[in-house]
User: What shape does this take?
Amino acid sequence: MVRTFYRTKKTSLLGEFMKEADNATIKKKPAWKKVIIPAALVILGIIIAFPIFFGTMTAMVATSSPEFCSSCHEIKPAVQAWAGSTHRNNARGLVAECMDCHLPPPEDTLRFFVMKTYHGMKDLTFHFLRGSEGYDREEAREGMYQSVTNEVCLRCHQNVLFMPQNRGAMLAHRAVIYARAGYEKKCIDCHYDLVHNNPAAVMYHQYRQLPYQAKGLKPEKLGL
Assistant: This one.
């Protein structure tokens, strides 16, 4: 009697175990589905995301051009001053456009995207809330001077430490790039009004109120 009970119990447990094993086999996905489906989803995501990303970056670069920036009344004088400056007209034929100085390089995608979005929102807010009449150019100029770092200038001016024809400038550049602690300076501490300024004040030294040693020297840097 007891043996029959245990044999029946054992058969019942074995049957349940086999049933669970069969269900697990049925529910178990084929190995190819574990690889193919995620890979297909990743590829689909790339196909969808790439055009969106490329289009966004293209639009951001296009809206950073001088032509686009000058479409706002408050920015047009700055673009006109840039057009007459050495950042556009120089003996080497090089051109530094708005985004070269005002934004991180597009290759630094994340920083470029963040800063472009920030400046775009800021400019739109000022444009619609204040208008061209409320735009303070001097305030904007000083804010830009505070934000510009030497890294921005050195993107283009890469050979400033080798100037045998101008030893004074070479030594001044060395003092800025390899500055001692407490003696840090910015490029624009000396090269101050090179771009967004009255072209006559830059091109013709007789209109300037300081010794004409280089374009864009702050009077306080010369001890005046």
